[in-house]
Amino acid sequence: MSFGARYTEAVAARGRLCAGIDPHAALLTEWGLPVSVDGLRAFAQACVAGVAPIAAVVKPQVAFFEQFGSAGFAVLEETIAGCRDVGALVLADAKRGDIGSTMAAYTTAWLDDASPLCSDAVTVSPYLGFGSLSPAVTAAQATDRGVFALARTSNPDGGALQTAAVADHGTVAQTIVDAGAAVNAQSPGTVGVVVGATREHGLDLSGLGGPILSPGLGAQGATPADLARIFDGADVSWLLPAASRSILRAGPDVAALRAAVEATRDEIEAAL
Ligand SMILES: O=c1ccn([C@@H]2O[C@H](COP(=O)(O)O)[C@@H](O)[C@H]2O)c(=O)[nH]1
User: Fold this and answer.
1) 19: buried, middle or exposed (CB in 10 Å: 19+, 13-18, 0-12)?
2) 95 flagged as catalytic
C-alpha cells in the first residue's frame, strides 16, 4: 500500500493529528524526571503508552534524543519500534539534507527496513536543491514510505529565504511544493511538505497530492481557528496539524496524555 494510502487510512481511523515526542529538558523536569538517559527513556515510554495508541502520526524530534549521544539514539530506536507496534505512523523529525551521495546514507538510516531507526517517513531539508533529495524520494517510493520537505516553516526566520521570488515560479517555497507535486503525480502521497500554522503561507497547495504537515499549534501560538483560516481553500484531507509541547505538558500521567491528544484532535476536527 502506498504511503499516501497508509496515511489516508491512519487519519481516517485516528483523526488528523501529528503528536510530537519532544523530550525537552524542561519537560523532563516538569514531569519529575532526571535530565538523563533514564529520564529520556521514562518520558519516551510514557509517550508510547499515552500518545502512540491513539494518534495517527507521531513525530519524535530526533534532536532531543541525539543530545544524549548513542544512548539517546538507543532510546529513539525503542521509541520508534514501540510507536509502530501500536499502529501509529512514525515520522522521524530529523530534517536531513545533503549532497546526493551523503543523502543516500541518511536514507539508509531512516527509510531502510534493515535500520533500527527505520520509520514510516522522515523530514528532509530541500535547501541543497530538491534534486539532492532523490535518494530519499526513490527509497520512499520503493518502500511505500514518505518524505516531508520543509517548504514554509513555522519559525519567524524562515521567510527571508522561503518567500524569496523565483523567476516565473512564485517563491522558493512554491518550487518545493511543485517539485513534491511532480513526484506525487507518479506515486500519490510520497512527498509531504511542511507548512507552519503560525502565519499566512502564500502557497498554492492545490496540486500537491500529499500530506501537509503543519506545526506550530499550541506552544508556538497557533490555534485550530488559525489552521482553518490559513488553509482555507486547500484540500484539508491532506492537512496534518502537529503539536508537541502543548500535549506533552499534560504528562507524565498516561491517561492525561491520552486525554490531551484526544482534546487537541477534537478541537482540530471541529475547526476544519
Ligand atoms: O517548521 C517547522 C518544522 C518543524 N517543527 C518541529 O515541530 C515541533 C513543534 O513543537 P511544539 O512544541 O509544538 O512547538 C518541534 O519538534 C519542531 O522542531 C516546527 O516547529 N516548525
Assistant:
1) buried
2) yes
